[in-house]
Write a structure and sequence with these properties.
- By secondary structure, this protein is an alpha+beta fold.
- Strands 1, 2, 3, 4 and 5 form a five-stranded antiparallel beta sheet that branches.
- Helix content is about 20%, strand content about 25%.
- The protein is globular, with a radius of gyration of 11 Å.
Length: about 80
């Protein structure tokens, strides 16, 4: 998925229905692409190019992880 992917414009958080931010992989910790909702501090995985947007797929992040994810956000 790329930041200009048309699908990204219509994807929404399943909990608050707000927009999600595509975060690129972080090579320093070998992480994959994720979709992030900074309002609720929840991240959703992208598995084999498919966003996993069930409420149960989201993971609540800690304050420290939230700060790191904000730094990774694509403008």
């Amino acid at each position: 998925m790329t930041p200009d992917d048309p699908l990204l414009r219509i994807l929404a958080c399943p909990l608050d229905k707000g927009p999600l931010h595509l975060l690129p992989p972080d090579e320093s910790v070998a992480s994959a692409e994720i979709l992030y909702n900074p309002r609720l501090r929840r991240r959703y995985p992208i598995v084999d190019g498919i966003p996993q947007l069930l409420p149960s797929s989201g993971v609540q992040v800690s304050e420290d992880e939230h700060e790191e994810l904000l730094k990774r956000m694509v403008p």
